[in-house]
Design brief:
It is a single chain. The protein has a 4-stranded antiparallel beta sheet with strand order 2-1-4-3. The chain contains 5 helices and 4 strands, in the order αααααββββ. 21% of the residues are buried. β3 and β4 form a beta hairpin. Helices cover 49% and strands 23% of the residues. The protein has one domain: 2-Layer Sandwich (Ribosomal protein S3 C-terminal domain). By secondary structure, the chain is of the alpha+beta class. It is rod-shaped.
Amino acid sequence: MMNDTKGQMHVLEVLLVATLFTSAVNVSVNILPTSDANNLEENDLYFSGLEILEMLDVWQPSDATIAAAHDDSTLAWWLATDNDASIKQYLDAGLASSVSYRLEATHSGQTEVIVDREVPSGPVVQSFRIVWADNEIWDLSLKLWYGYREG
């Protein structure tokens, strides 16, 4: 009878150790971050940038003459007429207030800054859009990050 009790205790000890081990593994898997844990915020920023540039590009100007001259694109119209203030106002209104950005455009071999904000040393996400404006291709680069949006 004594041998049976020792055997039962050993089985219980093995089960207890196995349960503790699997619990520890489960807790560590749930608590420790995975390699792509930060990608969710970066993906949100990236797709927000793509979406806001696309919406401005497909937004048709209400004036038919202006729309026809700029391929039905408000973005192309504002780029062609150097209306940087309207682009900035649109981006400020369309992006969350916790998101800051810098917009650059390359065309005719030159890069110009449309919305000038100092890019931080932390994580920055970049969205792109190619636009036909003013009879040339404009390559837009929208850099986005979480942080205070100054002037």
